[in-house]
Amino acid sequence: MAGDSPSALPVQLVEQPRLQKLKEMFLSKFGSAPKFYARAPGRVNLIGEHIDYCGYAVLPMAIEQDILIAVEPVQTQVVQLANINSSYLDFSTSVNNIQINKTKPQWHNYFLCGLKGIQEHFGLNNPTGMNCLLDGTIPPSSGLSSSSALVCCAGLVTLRANGKTLSKVELAEICTKSERYIGTEGGGMDQSISFLAEEGTAKLIEFSPLRATDVRLPSGATFVIANSCVEMNKAATSHYNIRVMECRLATKLLSKSKGLEWRKMLRLHDVQSKLGVSLEEMLTIVEEVLHPEPYSAEEICKCLGISLEELHSQILSQNMQDVSTFKLYQRAKHVYSEAARVLEFQKICSEAPANALQLLGELMKQSHISCREMYECSCPELDRLVDICLQFGAIGSRLTGAGWGGCTVSMVPTDKLNTFLKNVKKAYYQTDGQRLAVENNSLFATKPGRGALVFVEA
């Protein structure tokens, strides 16, 4: 059940080579054995990009790649973090003085987000110190949610080390909020699927209140993830937060034009629910109210009847003060059309018509076009990779994750999978020396995996 807390599984380490290896490395690093292990998976979003923070449902599934942490609670109030990948430096800090540096999104800061989220939720005065050794198999900056998986895993580790329990939903909500310590205004999809995922099914994730519904994917097709090898770090660039702000401004202008209390409205979903209209009707309203040309800050103030000073102090966040133009029409159009595609995708999966794969593929293609043209979160490499995947037999293909780099997800007929993988490898990875070097982790078929758990030695 999704409401329960993440389960603790007793395991025989000899049957789990990865855990066994992590235990041995832990022993040589800290001189003692871990008491438990926590795991949180990455995810691939099948459809519904950049709409979770606007209040709309998304459709991800967990993948096998994950963050795994071996943990030993200790008497000292110090957290010592180490990573089996030597390019990530060791870090230690007092548990009573957590400082998260937003200017440099280093790996340990994501761990500290999860730690701080749990500490603050319970008001822990003397939290337990910990020795932690981390092993991650999610390619970093690939749009498969490596950073959120680390935040979630750290939250789970802190919870267990301090002898507390929470439901998966509560954990997801706390980890969503706590990732904002690093400066990313995320919407909650990544954390929710990391905790709520179940093997064999994708999930429709809805927000306020958070809930997850199984979506059985059609048989006969396999989802394939391909990494563009262009790295994108949401916390290190402003693209992502600018889009969040453009959606917020579009919300205000649409609300004002319809006589709603625009100052209270934060998300595009709020406008639709207050007006009580369909997503199709919202698209018509966008056409009537907003113009395709970018808005200047002055024009936004004029539309809202406020001063520039008020715009900067009340609406724009700290890191948005220098942005001078905003594309409101394009962003709103993407969000409302993408929200409709998610619901259509779910409906096709549940009704399973004979041509389900073709219909789903079409929705994925439309989603990519909207991400590329309306939301402008693609990049030339992602577009090329989508084209190559479609050329070699994918029924649908699109960018997944925030975009501006990272991965594509493609739906491929299972009987064509091997030739598809071979051809994409040749066309995209083997033409480029740098991509060839990381090719092994860059192209893989995946199926819906399970959510976060704790392992204890049996």
Overview of this protein structure:
With 458 residues, the protein is of the alpha+beta class. It has a domain at 8-217 and 449-457: Ribosomal Protein S5, domain 2. It has 15 helices and 15 strands. The strands form four sheets. Strands 1-15-2-3-6-4-5 form a seven-stranded mixed β-sheet, sandwiched between helices. The longest helix is centred in the C-terminal third of the chain and has 24 residues, at 328-351. The chain starts with 7 loop residues before the first strand and ends with a strand. The mean pLDDT is 93.
Concise structural overview:
This protein has a domain at 8-217 and 449-457: Ribosomal Protein S5, domain 2 (2-Layer Sandwich), CATH 3.30.230.
